[in-house]
Specification:
By secondary structure, the protein is of the alpha+beta class. The chain folds into 2 domains: 5-164, Jelly Rolls (Sandwich), CATH 2.60.120.810; 175-269, Orthogonal Bundle (Arc Repressor Mutant, subunit A). The chain has helices at residues 89-98, 118-125, 139-156, 161-164, 175-182, 189-195, 200-211, 215-232, 238-241, 250-261, 265-269, and strands spanning 5-11, 14-19, 24-29, 33-40, 42-46, 51-54, 59-62, 67-73, 80-87, 112-113. The longest helix is centred in the middle third of the chain and has 18 residues, at 139-156. It is globular and about 60 Å long.
């Protein structure tokens, strides 16, 4: 797919992204909280138990250590364009220590939307002129902008401290429940192992013991079964399904589907299987 994509950082933690082609899809594990202000286009975010669609003017926070499928679309003749601010653990620890705040940690994987809040929009919109600068963005100003964003978040969301102030790493998760919930995300084995609180070798060993097969074989089967369900029960088309169930391209998906079931995705969609 030929994608016209531009990404400009003014600091490692503040960026402006723009997608001009039909769509861009990726799976991500968020290593830090991401505050996003949408300028134009549309984004669909698919998590294991929730789905979100955001458009121009929307502002939302994606908590860290989550996995999701992100699908970015240009829309109404406008590119998909957004300002993204990373709220790193290092910056948040500095903020809470400096302000003598000891938040109660709360585990949350839900994306938080701020309904085009004027204070947050003003904070993030003020970054736009800096993307046109030829000189380096002063680090002290960048730090002030991130501090401003954190302060506003704390004012508009009384529960946000429990998320931003939670610096715990993932604990050892129940492998069956975690994998059944997240198999459709096309993540590396290293990331799956991290999110289940295991080393890579421990993850593979525990997986073999639990499921009696390799992670890749199990993931492929689960994704193909989900695709079959989407065709028969949801009446979706292959082009709308393959990337939502963890495949990178339609050709690879179609080949794997035919090999597993003995007939093509089109046969199921057309009621001939």
């Amino acid at each position: 797919m030929n994608i016209e994509y531009r990404l400009k950082y003014i600091t490692p933690d503040i960026k402006l992204s723009s997608f001009d082609d039909r769509l861009f899809k990726t799976e991500l594990m968020f290593e830090y909280h991401m505050l996003v202000w949408f300028i134009s286009g549309e984004t669909k975010i698919i998590q294991a138990d929730a789905e979100y669609i955001f458009g121009p003017g929307d502002i939302f926070l994606i908590p860290r250590n989550q996995i999701a499928t992100i699908i970015n679309y240009p829309k109404n003749g406008q590119p998909h364009k957004a300002v993204v601010m990373h709220l790193t653990a290092e910056k948040l620890k500095q903020y809470y220590a400096a302000n003598h705040i000891k938040p109660n940690a709360a585990l949350s994987h839900k994306i938080r939307s701020f309904q085009k809040h004027p204070l947050l929009e003003s904070c993030l919109a003020s970054l736009i002129p800096y993307f046109e600068m030829q000189d380096n963005f002063p680090e002290d100003i960048a730090s002030l902008k991130i501090t401003e964003a954190i302060t506003i978040l704390r004012k508009v969301d009384k529960e946000i401290d429990g998320i931003l102030g939670n610096f715990e790493e993932p604990g050892k998760a129940d492998l069956i429940s975690f994998m059944e919930k997240n198999f459709m995300f096309n993540m590396s084995m290293e990331k799956f192992s991290y999110l289940t609180g295991r080393s890579l070798s421990s993850f593979k060993r525990d997986f073999k013991k639990t499921f009696h097969t390799t992670p890749q074989k199990w993931l492929t089967q689960k994704r193909l079964e989900l695709a079959h369900y989407q065709f028969t029960e949801k009446k979706k088309k292959p082009v709308d399904v393959y990337f939502e169930v963890g495949f990178e391209n339609l050709s690879h998906f179609s080949h794997a589907f035919r090999k597993h079931f003995g007939y093509s995705p089109a046969s199921v969609v057309n009621g001939k299987a």
